[in-house]
Each structure stands twice: as structure tokens, then as C-alpha cells.
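BUG: 3D viewer hangs when loading the predicted structure for this chain

Environment: internal workstation, default settings.
Expected: structure renders.
Actual: progress bar stalls at 90%.

Input used:
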Amino acid sequence: MSFQYSFQKILDLKKDEKDIKEQEYSRSVVQFEKVATALYQLLMQKEEIEAFYRERIETGIKIQEIQHNEATLLQLQERIYSEQNRADIAREKMLHKEKEMQAASVEWKKFEKLKEWKKEEHAKQLKKAEEQQLDEITTRKYAFR
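C-alpha cells produced before the viewer hung:
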């Protein structure tokens, strides 16, 4: 007699749920990486511009050009602030999806472990039944001698 797991449909559902949560987590990681990369590029751009402006100030620069530079840096700083907010939101979403994925994985593991236990129990019962049959056969052979 083959092993039939009574909760197989639930196990399959939990596996599908776990797979979906893993995909959602992967998408959130990609989204976070994209936003974080954009933030990094803005920060690098700011550093380059500041270095360029420092160099220009040392060599001499007009007041009008300094004002233009400050306006440019201010706009860049606003973009950085906005991108930092987006990165924070993406990070929170990624962490939330990770927790959901872990919870789904734990649930699936519970049912998987339960299936293993039931399978082992089934194997023990089959072995016990086989041993009983062998005992009966041996007893009958001995009785009819």
C-alpha cells in the first residue's frame, strides 16, 4: 500500500505561497537596488560637482557663477532628499517582503516535516504488518508439521 499524505493539498498550497513570497521578495530587492543605485549616482554627482566648484573657487570665480553653483547644488540636494525617501520606502518594503517570505517558508517547512513524520510512521506500520504476517506464516508452518 502506497503512502497517501492527507494534507498534500495544503502542503502544495503552502509551497505555492512560499514561491510567490520568494518572487515578491526578489522583485522588492531589485526595486530597492534600482532606487539605491540612483541615490548613489546622485551622491557621486554631488561630490564631483562640489570638487569642481572648490577647484574653481581656488582659481577665482565670479559671484554670479557662485550663485548659479549654489542653486545647482540646492536642486541636486532636493533630488537626493527625494531619492533617500524613495530608498527608505523601498528598503522597508523589501524588509517586509523578507519577513513574509520567511513566515511562508516556515509554514511550508512545518507541513513538509509533518509529511516526513507521517511517511516514517506509515513505513513503520507497514514493516510491523509485514512482521506480523511473517510470524503468522511461521506459526502456521510450525503448527502443521
